[in-house]
Amino acid sequence: MRLRPPVGRAFAHLWPLVGVAVLAALGARQSLWRAGGSSLVPRGAPVTQPVAFNHLKHTRDLQLECQFCHAYVTTGAHAGLPDGETCAPCHQEPQGSAPEAARVTALLADGTPLRFNKLFRLPAHVFYTHRRHVGIAELKCQQCHGGIAETERPPSRPLVRITMRFCMDCHRAQGQSLDCVACHR
Description:
The chain is mainly alpha-helical. 40% of the residues lie in helices and 0% in strands. The protein has helices at residues 15-35, 55-61, 66-69, 84-91, 99-110, 130-136, 142-145, 164-174.
């Protein structure tokens, strides 16, 4: 007995093409996954920040920990981004001679909101929390964010390309779950 397509005979000649297209798409997706090329972080437009934040000045020279500006790095799903209230205790008065430090002081004095933009964006189907990775597993920020603490200007794209392979390699090295539902909704 021959199966008939539900759309009737008018489109019956298209079913082999649909089948080939579906198989090709699945094959391409599988080979991308195996190659680690399926980036979890989309390569969208470059991210700009309200000021040219100098991570190196704050981490090396002032010896501030990541938690000082990223308040939820050990407890939240997202690490959190600093705002004017985070910067105000030090930047209400000019700090040094750097033009960007003076700009932060001017923005705070004007009452202009200081809103930094997220550099990393994961797809909605990926479940990730900083609490689980930094707070519990005690991973260092560099493992996923690379040398961000040594930058003198904010990068416009993540310094590390997060891919499925990147995450799976880390999970294997740490002896963590490789079950799909551990990280995918």
